[in-house]
Structure prediction request, 82 residues.
Amino acid sequence: MEILKTLNFDNPNYRPKMFCIEANKRNIAYGYETDLVKFMKDHDYVVVGDNFINLIFADIRQIRHSLPYDLLCGDIKLKKHN
Prediction:
């Protein structure tokens, strides 16, 4: 997670649409309540998949038009950006 903390998530020219991050899945509780997931959520990324080793995050700002209504109305809150 130290590498993620060095990224500038506010620069739209360098903001990745997706991340595939290796995660220690033994420590992931139901609902993905981990420091990694919380950190990514704070930067407007949401878990869209996993494969036993990795978590796959998508930029909610770029995919929100294709998400189901209930996901958008759930606990994902987009921050206001300039």
